[in-house]
Write a structure and sequence with these properties.
Strands 1-4-3-2-5-9 form a six-stranded mixed sheet, sandwiched between helices. Strands 6, 7, 8 and 10 form a four-stranded mixed sheet that branches. The longest helix is centred in the last third of the chain and has 25 residues. It has two domains: 215 residues, Spore Coat Polysaccharide Biosynthesis Protein SpsA, Chain A (Alpha-Beta Complex); 83 residues. About 2% of the residues have low confidence. The chain is of the alpha/beta class. The two termini are 34 Å apart. Helices cover 39% and strands 18% of the residues.
């Protein structure tokens, strides 16, 4: 379900003036993790203006009880009736956001207390997305607060041939731009974020603040982990689309898409020893010329092309 197809849902919680930032939380039956995510937002330093919009696709009473523990002038709950599914709920969060800047933050991820202090100075006209570096794992590691001003790197549309700039958390984008672009495209399933970040990069300047300020929780039952054996071909097709749009129908465009897809497939073959047919097909890209090059060298080639 895409943004344009959503009706208005029932709302709970008190509204206030439009804030600078909206954190949209797509929730589904994990209230314990949701509490941890919301607590990470209330611990943000710097006194920045934000609201939190929890869009609930699961309807558990425990979810409502968790949200009720936080200040009602900042934290609101919206119940999806009927449920919208993963990407549909991401779009519901975008639809309900009133902030100038929006982040879709999964209920099992979180932000470190210095996140807003790190990114707010980068929120300016012309920026279509600002994000930070992300640490991954089963549980958030304890990190020391940053010292000094972190470096900032531009992430160009061409770079999406290699990968997206982040696994998901920590991305702020202008809400109006996100809605104008149509939100997340459900046809891409778990890759809807990758494809949406690429469209944002084509629409303006994307910046990556080189400071870890977000945590991405990994687990065997998460959507991408479950679907990767079948998704690998879809990832390649998205890379191929990016390559053709950025480089035209040049042999180099096809080679770059196949090179990075093969590297992904080789890594996932270690995780999925059964090697389904979709994975086997992409592993066949090892037959392309120079498939054994270090990926860092090819990443440098992308930067030179940019």
């Amino acid at each position: 379900m895409n943004l344009a197809s959503l009706d208005e849902p029932p709302a709970y919680g008190r509204r206030r003036e439009a804030p600078l930032i909206t954190f949209g939380i797509p929730a589904y039956q994990r209230p314990e993790l949701l509490h941890e995510t919301l607590a990470s937002l209330i611990r943000q330093t710097g006194g920045h203006d934000f609201e939190v919009v929890v869009c609930d696709d699961g309807g558990l009473p425990a979810t409502a009880r968790v949200v009720a523990e936080f200040p009602a002038d900042r934290f609101s709950l919206y119940l999806n009736q009927p449920a919208l599914g993963g990407v549909g709920n991401w779009n519901r969060c975008l639809q309900r956001a009133r902030g100038r800047w929006v982040m879709i933050l999964h209920e099992d991820d979180l932000l470190y207390p210095w996140y807003l202090d790190t990114v707010v100075p980068r929120l300016c006209a012309g920026a279509s997305a600002v994000c930070t570096r992300v640490v991954q794992g089963a549980a958030p590691p304890l990190l020391a607060p940053p010292a000094g001003r972190p470096a900032v790197r531009r992430y160009l549309p061409l770079y999406f041939i290699k990968s997206s700039f982040t696994p998901f958390p920590g991305v702020l984008f202008p809400g109006e731009l996100g809605r104008r672009l149509g939100g997340f495209d459900a046809r891409h399933g778990p890759l809807a974020d990758y494809e949406f970040w690429y469209r944002l990069a084509c629409a303006g300047r994307v910046e990556v603040v080189r400071q870890v300020a977000a945590f991405y929780r990994t687990s065997p039952d998460q959507w991408t982990a479950r679907d990767w054996p079948a998704m690998i071909r879809q990832v390649h097709l998205l890379r191929r689309q990016v390559a053709l749009q950025q480089l035209g129908r040049r042999p180099l465009a096809f080679w770059l898409a196949r090179f990075f897809s093969y590297r992904d497939a080789r890594a996932y073959a270690r995780r999925f020893p059964g090697r389904p047919a979709s994975l086997q097909r992409v592993l066949g890209f090892r037959r392309i010329p120079l498939s054994g090059l270090p990926s860092g060298w090819v990443w440098q080639l992308l930067k030179l092309l940019a």
